[in-house]
């Protein structure tokens, strides 16, 4: 009997070794940081990575409970780094225990396999972010009172949920950059994914640093809802290609979300912040309410929305052309079949090359006229 061949493990620190064991290495690093809390010497340094920093406490009366707010600062980089590690671990868990098991049942091609994994990861994230952001919006009055988007600017003091939401958002989209390598993304898909990852990082970080957290939050929640519907529809499409109704709902909500984004952006930067009582530029106070910053922010949002609409229109036109091209061969085939059935005589009426009538009598032959 021949010996069974064992799968050779890749060399240590090779590309394949790093890709296969990156989740375990990141887990060990995160556990090392958590273990640092157990020792008094390292706890004061490790706490920066785990807990939200820059707490500001206000008390109105001696009997009332203190109100806790948070600001941002350089120590947030350490916190974002830790939660980026957590995002990498969760990404690996969802991939191994959920998406890979579904992929084995569906038997998808390599192209659909890559898109299925992408939509699966983003569907989980958008669902979680939409639920979290919606809960924050319901607790606040941003939806019922749009003037709070620019009233009392700068909004340098954030609630714990708002700051932790932004820290996790930035950490997630930063983790998406090394995942392009860990997940062996195809070269032709890397530019497309890099575009929207960098756009997310730039816009969310910009809203966080410029103290526009309220505007960013109210724009992210409907956007995440639209993206959730898109990726959920794509997952259903990969399981059954006849399930395409979700894309129609996504297309409608996509256009509405773009209009809502432009409307709130113009209202905030063009009218609200322009008429605020304390205009001026002060990094110490977190006040960036100057004309240059407002125009730059509004231009960045408008250009991004225009780019997204351009991609959306091209996508819809491509699908429309593919639908028409698929319909043309079907029409040609049905037309050719109907034409052939009309021209083709009944073979049952032919016997040895001669036409036979239905009653069995042979037709009379015409006599040729003599010249």
Automatic annotation (TrEMBL):
Pfam families: TRAM_LAG1_CLN8 (PF03798)
Domain TLC stretches: 114-323
Cellular location(s): Membrane
Membrane topology reported for the UniProt record: Multi-pass membrane protein
Membrane among keywords: yes
Transmembrane segments: 29-52, 80-99, 120-139, 159-182, 194-211, 217-237, 249-271, 291-310
One term under GO cellular component: endoplasmic reticulum membrane
Family of the protein in this entry: Belongs to the TRAM family.
Protein name per Swiss-Prot or TrEMBL: Translocating chain-associated membrane protein
Species of provenance: Gopherus agassizii
């Amino acid at each position: 009997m021949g010996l069974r061949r064992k799968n050779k493990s890749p060399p240590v620190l090779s590309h394949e070794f790093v890709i296969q064991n990156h989740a375990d290495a990141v887990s060990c690093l995160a556990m090392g940081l958590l273990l640092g809390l157990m020792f008094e010497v390292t706890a004061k340094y490790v706490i920066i990575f785990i807990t939200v920093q820059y707490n500001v406490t206000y008390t109105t009366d001696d009997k009332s409970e203190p109100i806790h707010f948070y600001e941002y600062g350089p120590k947030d980089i350490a916190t974002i780094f830790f939660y980026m590690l957590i995002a990498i671990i969760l990404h690996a868990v969802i991939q191994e225990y959920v998406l890979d098991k579904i992929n084995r049942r569906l038997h998808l091609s390599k192209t659909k396999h890559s898109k299925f994994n992408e939509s699966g990861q983003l569907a989980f994230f958008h669902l979680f972010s939409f639920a979290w952001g919606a809960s924050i919006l319901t607790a606040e009055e941003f939806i019922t009172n749009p003037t709070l988007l620019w009233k009392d600017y700068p909004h340098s003091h954030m609630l714990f949920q708002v700051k932790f939401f932004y820290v996790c958002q930035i950490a997630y989209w930063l983790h998406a950059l090394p995942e392009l390598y860990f997940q062996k993304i195809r070269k032709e898909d890397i530019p497309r994914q890099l575009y929207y990852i960098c756009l997310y990082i730039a816009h969310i970080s910009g809203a966080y640093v410029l103290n526009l957290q309220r505007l960013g939050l109210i724009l992210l929640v409907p956007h995440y809802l639209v993206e959730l519907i898109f990726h959920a529809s794509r997952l259903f499409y990969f399981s059954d290609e006849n399930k395409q109704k979700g894309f129609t709902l996504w297309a409608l909500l996509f256009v509405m979300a773009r209009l809502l984004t432009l409307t709130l952006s113009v209202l905030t930067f063009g009218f609200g912040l322009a008429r605020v009582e304390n205009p001026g530029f002060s990094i110490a106070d977190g006040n960036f309410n100057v004309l240059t910053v407002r125009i730059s922010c509004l231009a960045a949002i408008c250009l991004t929305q225009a780019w997204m609409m351009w991609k959306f229109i091209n996508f819809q036109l491509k699908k429309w052309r593919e639908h028409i091209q698929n319909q043309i061969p079907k029409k040609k085939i049905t037309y050719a079949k109907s034409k052939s059935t009309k021209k083709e005589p009944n073979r049952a009426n032919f016997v040895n090359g001669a036409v036979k009538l239905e009653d069995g009598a042979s037709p009379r032959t015409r006599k040729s006229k003599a010249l």
